[in-house]
Amino acid sequence: MNYFVTAIGTDSGKTLVSSILVEALKADYWKPVQAGMPTDSDSVRGWLSNEHSVVHPETHLLKIPASPHAAAKYEHLSIVLDDFVLPETDNEVVIEGAGGLLVPLNDEDFVIDIAVALQVPVILVANLYLGSINHTLLTIDYLKRNNIEVKGLVFNGESNPESERIIEQHSGYKVLLRLPKLGLVNKEVIQYWADELMMNWYE
To answer: CB count, 10 Å around CB of 60?
Structure first.
């Protein structure tokens, strides 16, 4: 099974969660669209301990840190959904989106449309901050209204039990992991949380 890691916004922790997921499943990693440097692929590559996972090259590697549709326009490029073909591998693939669900790829398509086109279930990362309940429930509403399959939810950041409770109640999604605010991220930290993730994965 392949999985698409998306989030309620930019800098929500998708790369961190993707790394944990890749390490837990010994899966491959693929970032279809990267806008700006350094790349998320480089971060994931540096955090993995296992020798089985492969980090596949980006389909679109754009120079400026902006929405993909704007970054592509700057380089006189166009992005279309047909560009995105799963890497050839016998392994599972963890696919990391760019920004939140409705970050535009072009004038018609959004990042979440990659998951829909590839028929891949979603793992939603929700970071916790003032206002995140609204942003998370709006994201969940979009996923549900569009019948997009969701494997589960990852909370990222300093725990807020009331925020987490109300989001769980209204989403009905399984919580796969509750990540605290991490001051340090390295191979050992990723491995620790990969083990924690696997404790919830098959429940």
So the answer is: 20
**Active-site residue flag, 26:** no
Are 150 and 173 in contact by the 8 Å Cβ rule? The answer is yes
To the question of pTM greater than 0.85 for the whole model, the response is yes
Q: Are strands 60-62 and 150-156 parallel, antiparallel or unpaired?
A: unpaired
> What fold, for 3-201?
Rossmann fold (3.40.50)
Which of the following is catalytic: 26, 31, 63, 181? 31
- Domain positions in the chain are 3-201
Read off the pLDDT of residues 44-101 as tens digits, 9 standing for 90 and up.
999 999 999 999 999 999 999 999 999 999 999 999 999 999 999 999 999 999 999 9
Question: Taking the C-alpha atoms of 122, 30, 8 and 116 in order, what is their torsion angle to the nearest 10 degrees?
Answer: -40
Do the Cβ atoms of 141 and 33 come closer than 8 Å? no
Residue 161 three-state SS: helix
